[in-house]
Amino acid sequence: MNKKGFxxxxxxxxxxxWICRKVISLAIGSIILIAFCMWLRFYIDNLWHEYLMPxxxxxxxxxxxxxxxxxISLFHAIIDRWYGVDYWKPVMRITxxxxxxxxxxxxTPAIFMLTLRTARPLSEQIxxxxxxxxxxxxxxxxxxxxxxxxxxxxxxSLSENFNGMSMQLERYDNELKKSHVAMAHELRSPLxxxxxxxxxxxxxxxxxxxxxxxxxxxxxxxxNRLVEDLHFLKLADAGQLNLNIVPVSLNEIVxxxxxxxxxxxxxxxxxxTHTQNLIINGMxxxxxxxxxxxxxMDNALHYAAEGRVLNISYESSHDSVSVVFSDKGPAxxxxxxxxxxxxxxxxxxxxxxxxxxxxLGLSIARAICKAQGGSLTVKKNKxxxxxxxVSLNKH
Length: 395
What we know:
The protein is α+β, with helices and mostly antiparallel strands. It is built from ten helices and seven strands. 59% of the residues lie in helices and 11% in strands. The strands form two sheets. Strands 2-4-5-7-6 form a five-stranded mixed sheet. A two-stranded antiparallel ribbon has the order 1-3. Helix 1 runs antiparallel to helix 4 and helix 5 runs antiparallel to helix 6.
């Protein structure tokens, strides 16, 4: 099974085996055809001579063929009379050579045409791949090729992997375009607000007092935080995050972050429940994993407050440990569930914009988990809401 989930059957074998089977079958077929034609030539010639014989001679020859020693002289006399004295010469006659030459001239083009016909699917598929690759190189992502079942395994695998790659590039390209548009909007909003406020101060619309300057500073801080978040994601994508991964007590970090967000939780009416008397250890960067927990808690406080509860539980296996944040707020459609980790996805679709509104919170959380060799996944709860699972290695 390949990366895109395609299942490859092996009934056609590898490309080398496929070519060998085709070539050997054509070679054997040509030899059998020529041999059959030569046999047919002698068989028809023999029938013709027997047809010319009187019935009595034909009957006598049939007896002598089974046992020539009964009357060897009569046997040779019949052969010489009706087949010719050259019939028994152990050399090929000119007629035989001509027949063989004609057969070769007929069979060779036939074999040539069959070979071309056999190779045609390979040529067509490779040409289709070349054309599709040309479209992809020109930025026309999403180009695909058909995959005939009779092709060898390697060529079908190449075609299916090319289709998967092309679709992946198309998806990345669409996401990149959307991300650029959203990024421009997010960067422009605080920048426009700050510039408008400063222009108002310059024009005398606003007094240049501390309150006005603090409003400008607030927008600039928002812009700076957004730029830092983007920079963080790029570092994570490039594998350049500086992490101090050590054994940590995850439940202790959860307890600290719960105490930190408790006033905000009380303000919006959310009760945070979690087991405090457990010892849950895992390998993580204490600061960064705490950042992940805060993002998930903030996300619940801002977009699952109507559920009134955020339950934090733990799961453990032989190699990994997980912290699950489960709320009872509004969920999202199944087809959009994974989109909540996409940067700048709107809050009404994904609930992903935590306090501050950068729309990068869950993207950063997943990037941190991935950089630590773990994962961040989400699923819908049976009774409503979402459950985010942070999984980390134990050792």
